Amino acid sequence: MRRKAPNLQTLRIKTSLSDQISLASHRRPLFSDAAPRLKHFTTNAKFIFNPTAPWISNLRTISLETYHPIPFILSLLKSTPLLTTLKLSGVPPSDIHQHAIANAAIEELDLTPIHLPRLTSLQLLYSPFRDVLTLLTHIKPSSCCGLVIFAMGSTGTRANTRANSLVDDLYDVMVEWISAFIDGRPAKSLVMTSMLCAGMPSFTIQDAVAIKERSLEVTFNLEYRGYSALRKLATCSGLSTVKQLCLDCVPETGDKLLPLYRAFSSVTNLIIVGRCDDIRSFHIDDNPWCQFPIFPLLHTLEVRGSRNYPIQRFNSVGFIIDFLEYRAGVGLPVLSLNLCNDTAMLLRREKQDCLRRLRQVSGLVLSMPPTAITPIEYYMNELKI
Questions:
Q1: Residue 312: which domain range?
Q2: DSSP state of 137
Q3: Of 140, 159, 193, which residue is a domain's last?
Q4: In a domain, 169, yes or no
Q5: How far is the C-alpha of 74 from the C-alpha of 151, rounded, in Å?
Q6: Pairing between β-strand 21-22 and β-strand 47-48 as defined by DSSP bridges
Q7: pLDDT at 374 over 50
Q8: What pLDDT does residue 295 have?
């Protein structure tokens, strides 16, 4: 590995050894500093090399699957102007003193913002809060760069001011990256998903490849402090182009995210998957945000079950009907309610009250997929709206 490699384009180093591999101390540099065509570099080893070596400047993808100190990573990124994909994963050393020394070195670095104009994917997996915050702060956000973040560490308690401040700062910088991505890629469709893993602040923002037209997917897992950061996305001008909004297992946030929901001013189709307890706050008459109804152009509401939150646990039927009644009452009626089979089964179970109330929503049409089973079709026919 210390010989010249003029034709090498991809290098993968896989090892089961736990000892650190260090080439920095060798007199002869890696590849003798001659690997002009190397584009893809992957290793799962604690592999230390010269982060300013000439061959690094041509790299397109870097994947380091074992923890590397942040000072090393920052030095490396300053030499990679062509980088498109960066994936960092792995937990820090168990030796707290060693980790503290590595972090202390950050203060001695030149923390001039790093511009990676071609970066399209940044993944920071199972990284400490401080490492994620340092990287996101010193890499310039890009409208072309998708983001996958799983941050590890204690989120602290209300008495732990330092830990809470660190998490708040992390949420804020995540939102800056997401804002840049959304504003730079106006989409017709957006999916908001909440993951079911507690205690691990995380964000994902990427193109929704399952949808052909321009579509974005935002996945988040937040504590109560994170909602104030997430609602800052309301300033994203790109949200105003979204026509279809999907809320997938979004937890109850009260009115904390109402400013964000109001930014979706062009939504005509709202999809609820699994649960969306926030729908209760969309129509509270004494709520100051309801002076002008959310989703003013909305005409279609779709309700589905999900693997993580099956329809059997769905407890929002009454809230959805409340929302439909409210919309009709303020002169902005939802014209179509689309139910999946499982949702219709739940409606059937509670048919007496639900069917009576739905019949009274003026202009509403209830629709089902063609695969609806016979008992469901029967109750659809009963529902003449």
A1: 243-385
A2: H
A3: 140
A4: no
A5: 18
A6: parallel
A7: no
A8: 92
